[in-house]
Amino acid sequence: MIQKLKSEILEKTKHHAKEKTYFLQSQFKQHSSTAIIAALSFVIALVWKDLIIKIIDNIIKPHIIQKYPYLSELITAVVVTLFAIITMTLVSRWNKAEEKNNRVN
User: Fold this and answer.
1) How far apart are alpha carbons 37 and 14 in whole angstroms?
2) Residue 17, Cα to own-chain centre: how many angstroms?
3) Alpha-carbon distance 91 to 100, whole Å?
4) Using CA of residue 48, residue 51, residue 53, residue 56, what is the dihedral sign?
5) Which stretches in the chain have pLDDT values below 70?
6) Which of 1, 4, 30, 40 has its CA 20 to 30 A from that of 11?
7) How far apart are the first and last CA of the chain?
8) Do residues 81 and 57 lie in contact, with contact meaning Cβ atoms separated by under 8 Å?
9) b or e along 9-21 (b: 16 or more beta carbons within 10 Å of the residue's beta carbon)?
């Protein structure tokens, strides 16, 4: 009787440990993939920023850039900020729609 009880406790403990291990593995993978995606997104943003600055520098007349040396960076910051706000709004709406669909299902 005691041996059977010990065996049941041991099996429950093994099962619980396996569940926790699988959970930790999935969380690690999820957080690692999120971090990698964020890092790659940051690199992409830096590349696009450089391109936008070069385009704005070519559009603005050279004498204006000499008079206002930070004008191209200001315009770039405004363009990137507007793009980011629009993108975050769209992603937020998409996420809310996804949550709503998950609640219904």
Assistant:
1) 34
2) 30
3) 14
4) negative
5) 98-99, 102, 104-105
6) 30
7) 46
8) no
9) eeeeeeeeeeeee
- At residue 52, the 3 state secondary structure works out as helix
Q: At what angle do helices 2-59 and 71-104 cross, to 10 degrees?
A: 150
DSSP reduced 3-state for 48: helix
DSSP state of 77: H
Q: Is the dihedral of CA 58, 59, 62, 65 positive or negative?
A: negative
- Which tokens belong to 4? 């059977």
Q: Compute the mean pLDDT over every residue in the chain, rounded to the nearest whole number.
A: 83
- Prediction pTM value: 0.51
